[in-house]
């Protein structure tokens, strides 16, 4: 809890209420497994909160396939300057998310029941996040059309992050992305650190909207480990 206090600061009581709701209603309603309760903080809440390190101030964020609100609700708690849309197609999950938002009194969060591909005409955001939603190759086709030029997809990934990035290369090229990068955040706070794939949209970041066709990338991809 010392690390949680460092990460969440004055927002820790809100994070504690969210953790309790996940441990009870979240388990009962099948949004998280019962074995996750004992590691909620390190594996889930702190793991997601440290993503805020690389999100710019006052950003508009869409959390794709938000599920139980990870990372979207966590980011909204730790960063009240963010404007977060939780995008989730399943009714039982959006019901849970709406209850969370009301209980935690998060004025910077909106819950939207929809698939990413159904709302592509409505969004032009700074950051898209996703955790345990789909392989990067497929996730990119959902997320990149929601980004403004220069916007970023931040995908929380595990050990296969580099491999997924390689496998997604043809798709990312067709979308004309500016750069791709592997990042680790939360050093010294979570073990292992949270691994992110960051994809920066080019001027073709809004490809996928009905009126536009994919464009090829200009230049090379950026990598770091």
Automatic annotation (TrEMBL):
<keyword id="KW-0808">Transferase</keyword>
<feature type="binding site">
    <location>
        <position position="131"/>
    </location>
    <ligand>
        <name>S-adenosyl-L-methionine</name>
    </ligand>
</feature>
<keyword id="KW-0698">rRNA processing</keyword>
<feature type="binding site">
    <location>
        <position position="70"/>
    </location>
    <ligand>
        <name>S-adenosyl-L-methionine</name>
    </ligand>
</feature>
<feature type="binding site">
    <location>
        <begin position="116"/>
        <end position="117"/>
    </location>
    <ligand>
        <name>S-adenosyl-L-methionine</name>
    </ligand>
</feature>
<dbReference type="GO" id="GO:0005829">
    <property type="term" value="C:cytosol"/>
</dbReference>
<dbReference type="Pfam" id="PF02527">
    <property type="entry name" value="GidB"/>
</dbReference>
<dbReference type="InterPro" id="IPR029063">
    <property type="entry name" value="SAM-dependent_MTases_sf"/>
</dbReference>
<comment type="function">
    <text>Specifically methylates the N7 position of a guanine in 16S rRNA.</text>
</comment>
<keyword id="KW-0489">Methyltransferase</keyword>
<keyword id="KW-0963">Cytoplasm</keyword>
<protein>
    <recommendedName>
        <fullName>Ribosomal RNA small subunit methyltransferase G</fullName>
        <ecNumber>2.1.1.-</ecNumber>
    </recommendedName>
</protein>
<keyword id="KW-0949">S-adenosyl-L-methionine</keyword>
<dbReference type="InterPro" id="IPR003682">
    <property type="entry name" value="rRNA_ssu_MeTfrase_G"/>
</dbReference>
<dbReference type="GO" id="GO:0070043">
    <property type="term" value="F:rRNA (guanine-N7-)-methyltransferase activity"/>
</dbReference>
<comment type="similarity">
    <text>Belongs to the methyltransferase superfamily. RNA methyltransferase RsmG family.</text>
</comment>
<feature type="binding site">
    <location>
        <position position="65"/>
    </location>
    <ligand>
        <name>S-adenosyl-L-methionine</name>
    </ligand>
</feature>
